[in-house]
Amino acid sequence: MTLRSSFDRRGFLRTTGAAALGTLAAPSILRAQDGPIILGHLTPHTGFLGPLGEYAVMAAELATEEINAAGGIDGRQLQLIKEDSVNPQTASTKAERMIGRDKVAAIIGEISSASALTIAQTVERGKTLFLNTGANSDALRGADCKRHMFHVETQNAMYVNAEGQHLLQSGLVEGKKWYVLTADYAFGHDLLAGARAFLERNGGSIAGEDLVPTDATDFSSFMLKIRAAEPDLVALNLAGTQITSFFKQYGEFGLDFPVGGFGFDTAMAWAAGVQNFRGTWPCVWNHQIDTERSQAFTKAFTDKFGMPPENQAWGDYMAIQILAQAIRETKGTDAAAIIEYFEDPEAKFDMMKTREGYFNPENHQLLQEIYAITAVPASEAENEWDIFTTSEPLPAPDQPLETLIADAVGGSCSFSA
Amino acid sequence: MSLFLFLSQLLNGLLDGFYYLLIAIGLSLIFSLGGIVNLAHGAFFAIGAYLAIALTPYTGFFGAVILVPLIVAGLGMIVERLLFTRFYRADPLYSLLLTFGLAMIIEQALRWSFGAAPLAYNMPELLRGQVFIGDFIYSRYRIFLITVAVLAVAALWLLLNRTAFGRIVRAGIQNPDILGAMGISLRPYLSVVAGIGIGLAGLAGMLMAPIVPVHPAMGTEVLTAAFVVVVIGGLGSFWGVVLAAILVGVVKGFVIGIDLPSWSLAAIYLLMFLVLLLRPRGLMGERILRFE
């Protein structure tokens, strides 16, 4: 009884009024606090991209550990919340929870272009940063671009331009016919459009093309079709474990048409093994790059996990380093301030390569050098990791980095929409 | 598309059916006798593939083909003794939960011991390359794989239909209570059947290791296909599973043959859907007293 009488209408208004004022004032109080900086790491741990996601997770852990061991960012420790993004719907739900419940400073990760799009839509509503570390689709940098999404990962056009140069030099384009296998989801469709446009520009034609379900592990039917079509080149727009399945079964069926393509991850070459891996492929980074920082990263990763990092590991490690630099420079985790910093062409980042990278303010793509790797014959491989050699950085030193994103498909980007 | 290529795809699908069979028959066998829906079947498939990688440096490829299924079968019998026995008479839901958990434990254990990155596994040079049957090109390795699959399934059929062991197992599938009344204990038979079923999953994993990516979650993909085959074939029917496996392969080949490869996986589920709609107990499913 006494309780109820002491808590009358006036008392209620007083208390809730004070509480409401407190909540309004909270953001400034929170910003001043020295609590940990929470990062949401969201990437596939399962499914056909799962094996790549595992590298992403390992690298994110390594980056966080290193930053914290060195005293954190301006004295604040990094804390990582890791989740399996599973599929576009789940990815969006989990992103929403990270923003709403965990109050993350940024979301880092993703490999699937389809999931990256739903995460981007969520972060745009929640005004939180998203650093894409693995989704390549040009559309994410074009019609589907978002102000809060930045791309540490290369975009498809960069792969098409780099691999295209190699194929042109090898005489595999003009007047030649390609058999194209494409992963049947956003990334593949986007890459296929880019590859088609490239072939048209350069006088090649398509001998046959198939969309391959992402879950497919049996490629025997495609082997029969490829052989019947007798192409000059088998061009792959595949992703994840599809690439390994293809290599293994291409070797199994003893086919020997040249193979090349635009989508690639070194982990998939390692999984195919030196017996099956062949051709020349574009990649954003590989463990053979001869710079001090690349070799230091490779050593730290190998010491911790017992195997060299692959390009997906580089992506997530790099993204956390880039974000840490932005938080230091802007003295906080305010998304608007970091966006402004990233969009400044003067903001340069050490990409572990020969040239520094910077974000293209028009589509938020991190412009950087890329590489091509070429399979070595089985007899020359020194171990199970060094089954390829890396090229010098692309483009050539006298070419601007912008040449890599020329002729991108996927529409034009407008952040106001 | 030419008629020849269409026929090639059909034939390729038919041959695909044999390794669907290898994976599905063990699942069907364990379910028929003990009523356990083994959701860990795919996980044992993965164990088979990883064991192949671990053993091949010591035993060679062909040694592994013999040893891996035996070891996985042994594991299966241990799992049967420790876990399955408690659930034979229980609601099937409990065994579903049990084997679902077991599948996750095995997958994580593989991730722990071998890492999450897919591993390479080479096939002997002897089996690499193409063979021609007339104009039809096929892989030498798959001829080997299918031969082993057919031998294993034929041996299983002989065991079930031409031996005293098989008579008791078949009686147990039909009516375990009467078998008990006749003074025959089904327990040791249940162990051996679980061992055979799971051993076949291990054999399938070992044989697929050279041609698919070997990673800890590789079993889940396979499990779904095996389930579809068992459901289409019908419970408790040996020939039902054989027929269903081949049918699934041919339907997949047909869909690719008419140039709709992106529909090839969906077509299998569509087939299951149709069969369940028109004939709920499967193509050759028997009426089993315990389940009706």
TrEMBL record, chain A:
<keyword id="KW-0813">Transport</keyword>
<keyword id="KW-0732">Signal</keyword>
<dbReference type="Pfam" id="PF13458">
    <property type="entry name" value="Peripla_BP_6"/>
</dbReference>
<comment type="similarity">
    <text>Belongs to the leucine-binding protein family.</text>
</comment>
<dbReference type="InterPro" id="IPR028081">
    <property type="entry name" value="Leu-bd"/>
</dbReference>
<feature type="domain" description="Leucine-binding protein">
    <location>
        <begin position="37"/>
        <end position="374"/>
    </location>
</feature>
<dbReference type="GO" id="GO:0006865">
    <property type="term" value="P:amino acid transport"/>
</dbReference>
<dbReference type="InterPro" id="IPR006311">
    <property type="entry name" value="TAT_signal"/>
</dbReference>
<dbReference type="InterPro" id="IPR028082">
    <property type="entry name" value="Peripla_BP_I"/>
</dbReference>
<protein>
    <submittedName>
        <fullName>ABC transporter substrate-binding protein</fullName>
    </submittedName>
</protein>
<keyword id="KW-0029">Amino-acid transport</keyword>
<dbReference type="InterPro" id="IPR051010">
    <property type="entry name" value="BCAA_transport"/>
</dbReference>
UniProtKB/TrEMBL annotation, chain B:
<dbReference type="GO" id="GO:0006865">
    <property type="term" value="P:amino acid transport"/>
</dbReference>
<dbReference type="InterPro" id="IPR001851">
    <property type="entry name" value="ABC_transp_permease"/>
</dbReference>
<feature type="transmembrane region" description="Helical">
    <location>
        <begin position="60"/>
        <end position="84"/>
    </location>
</feature>
<keyword id="KW-1133">Transmembrane helix</keyword>
<dbReference type="InterPro" id="IPR052157">
    <property type="entry name" value="BCAA_transport_permease"/>
</dbReference>
<keyword id="KW-0029">Amino-acid transport</keyword>
<dbReference type="GO" id="GO:0022857">
    <property type="term" value="F:transmembrane transporter activity"/>
</dbReference>
<feature type="transmembrane region" description="Helical">
    <location>
        <begin position="141"/>
        <end position="160"/>
    </location>
</feature>
<keyword id="KW-0813">Transport</keyword>
<keyword id="KW-0472">Membrane</keyword>
<feature type="transmembrane region" description="Helical">
    <location>
        <begin position="189"/>
        <end position="210"/>
    </location>
</feature>
<protein>
    <submittedName>
        <fullName>Branched-chain amino acid ABC transporter permease</fullName>
    </submittedName>
</protein>
<dbReference type="GO" id="GO:0005886">
    <property type="term" value="C:plasma membrane"/>
</dbReference>
<feature type="transmembrane region" description="Helical">
    <location>
        <begin position="96"/>
        <end position="121"/>
    </location>
</feature>
<keyword id="KW-0812">Transmembrane</keyword>
<feature type="transmembrane region" description="Helical">
    <location>
        <begin position="260"/>
        <end position="278"/>
    </location>
</feature>
<keyword id="KW-1003">Cell membrane</keyword>
<comment type="similarity">
    <text>Belongs to the binding-protein-dependent transport system permease family. LivHM subfamily.</text>
</comment>
<dbReference type="Pfam" id="PF02653">
    <property type="entry name" value="BPD_transp_2"/>
</dbReference>
<feature type="transmembrane region" description="Helical">
    <location>
        <begin position="222"/>
        <end position="248"/>
    </location>
</feature>
<feature type="transmembrane region" description="Helical">
    <location>
        <begin position="20"/>
        <end position="53"/>
    </location>
</feature>
